[in-house]
Every structure is written in structure tokens, then in C-alpha cells.
Specification:
Layout: H1 8-14, E1 21-22, E2 25-26, H2 30-37, E3 63-66, E4 71-73, E5 82-87, H3 95-109, E6 117-122, H4 130-138, E7 145-148, H5 151-161, E8 166-170, E9 176-179, E10 184-187, E11 193-197, H6 203-212
Parallel strand pairs: 5-6, 6-7
Antiparallel strand pairs: 1-2, 3-4, 3-7, 5-10, 8-9, 10-11
Helix pairs in contact: 3-6
């Protein structure tokens, strides 16, 4: 599988082209940018990814297994935009923000939601079996697609998106807790990543950006 690797420095440089732009988000003021870096979002609904084309190319490639047990690759989604998030079904941190936001955005899209593939690629394959993902994700939205696979196949998928994932601690009952990427990647129908969305965006804004690439 061919990998398109992006270094952290390159991604940082892309979004450092202006004091009020970072992490795939444009801010109206330097104060707003500073607030976001500190974890505050004074007007999250107004944040939007850059309208400029990305100066690098990410073409998603993966060979994984979906939550129904079916082997899938990026070719199975050809001609459909994808919204891809890396996390895990039992995550109580950023996933519990991103997945409900994606679900709400799908509801806002209405019938147009059928035209986009909303995908969670797990970083926890030991617990995120197809059956476990099917049960957990259905609680967020019936259209969410869970993808899992072997450690090597998932590592290949993460490499394409330059995602780091590692276990950082355990819960009181011994379940692993992972650090992982937080962006939702919007992939166009042509198979190229168009933009990133931080999950602090409102569902309305996420739906608006999804609709842009339908």
C-alpha cells in the first residue's frame, strides 16, 4: 500500500500562515485564535477550515473490515464523500464530542446524508470488534460506519493521515485509554482529502461543510 506521509512540521506550517489560523481553523481575531489554543471557544460555530486548497495531497488508502464484518477498501466508497475520524467506540473523551457532532450533522443533512460516508477508524482493535462497533455506533447514529482490522492494516491507515495513537493509561476497570487524532477529515468524491474539521465546530457548521463536498 502506498503511503502519503505528512510530517507534523508540514501540517503546522500549513496552518501557521497567519496569526489567526491554526489546526485547520480560521479565526477572525488573534484573541479568538489564542482562546482556541487554550481550549476555549468563544464562537465555535463561526470557526471554519480554510477555503484555500491544501498544499499537499492526501489520498486515503485502506484495507479494513467494517462493522458488519465485510472487507472494505477506499474503492468501496468511490464517488462518495467521506467524513473520517480516528478514535474508538468506548472513548469517553474527544470521541464523545466528535461522534455526536457527526451524528447531529447527518440529521441536519436529512436525505443528503445518504450521499456521504461517515466513518470511524478504530485505534483499539482489541475491543473494537465488528460486533462491538456495530452495537456502540448504532447508539450514536444508524449511518455511522465502523472500520477495524489487523494492527498492520490500521497502522497503514493511520500513516496515510499522519495519525499517532498510543495507550496512555487505563480506566479503573482496566480498559485502555488512548491518545489519538482529533480532526474529522472530509474526503471528496474524487478520493482526495479536502479539509480538516476540529470537533469543536457546531453540528450545523459540520453539516454545512459536508454539504459543500456532496
Amino acid at each position: 500500500m502506498r503511503r502519503t506521509l505528512l510530517t507534523g512540521a508540514l501540517v503546522g506550517a500549513v496552518f501557521a500562515t497567519g496569526a489567526a489560523a491554526h489546526d485547520g481553523v480560521n479565526h477572525a481575531t488573534d484573541a479568538e485564535a489564542a482562546a482556541h489554543r487554550q481550549g476555549a471557544a468563544p464562537n465555535a460555530a463561526a470557526f471554519s477550515p480554510s477555503d484555500l486548497p491544501l498544499p499537499f495531497l492526501i489520498r486515503p488508502e485502506f484495507a479494513l473490515i467494517d462493522h458488519t464484518g465485510r472487507a472494505v477498501t477506499q474503492a468501496d466508497f468511490a464517488g462518495r464523500p467521506m467524513a473520517i475520524f480516528f478514535g474508538y467506540a468506548n472513548c469517553e473523551a474527544i470521541c464523545s464530542v466528535a461522534l455526536p457532532a457527526m451524528a447531529s450533522a447527518l440529521d441536519i443533512l436529512g436525505a443528503d446524508a445518504d450521499r456521504i460516508a461517515p466513518i470511524l477508524i478504530t485505534v483499539d482493535p482489541q475491543r473494537d470488534t465488528p460486533q462491538a462497533m456495530a452495537q456502540r455506533l448504532s447508539g450514536y447514529h444508524p449511518r455511522l460506519i465502523g472500520l477495524t482490522g489487523s494492527e498492520d492494516a490500521l497502522a497503514d491507515a493511520r500513516a496515510v493521515f499522519q495519525i499517532d495513537a498510543k495507550q496512555v493509561t487505563e480506566t479503573a476497570d482496566g480498559a485502555p485509554v488512548y491518545a489519538h487524532g482529533s480532526f474529522i477529515y472530509l474526503v471528496g468524491a474524487d478520493g482526495e482529502v479536502k479539509t480538516f474539521m476540529p470537533p469543536i465546530l457546531s453540528p450545523e457548521r459540520i453539516a454545512e461543510l459536508m454539504r459543500k463536498y456532496l
